[in-house]
Amino acid sequence: MAARDDAETIKWYEKGAERGNVFALFNLGMAYLKGIGVARDYVEAYKWLHLSATKGYDDAPAICEALEKKSQAKT
């Protein structure tokens, strides 16, 4: 996917996330986790993934837990 397409996708994920769309929240978190369309940022990734987890996205809790463990290993 081209960088321009990635930026457009992120824009739509952000709009959906503002409305509380669980899929947008999760996908925005994954974008930050992988650095797709945005700079890689584990804190932002955790924030969006955690929000999707609180709204019931099944895959999000395990990813949040892995990020927590990664963070704890660095301290």
Q: What's the total count of β strands?
A: 0
CATH hierarchy, class: Mainly Alpha
Enumerate the spans where pLDDT stays under 50 for 5 or more consecutive residues: none
What is the assigned CATH homologous superfamily? Tetratricopeptide repeat domain
How would you describe the shape? flat
Structural class: mainly alpha
Domain module count? 1
- Helix-strand topology string: HHHH
Give me the number of helical elements: 4
Radius of gyration: 12 Å
Hey, roughly how much beta strand do the residues contain? under 5%
Name the descriptors:
flat, about 80 residues, mainly alpha, Serine Threonine Protein Phosphatase 5, Tetratricopeptide repeat, about 75% helix
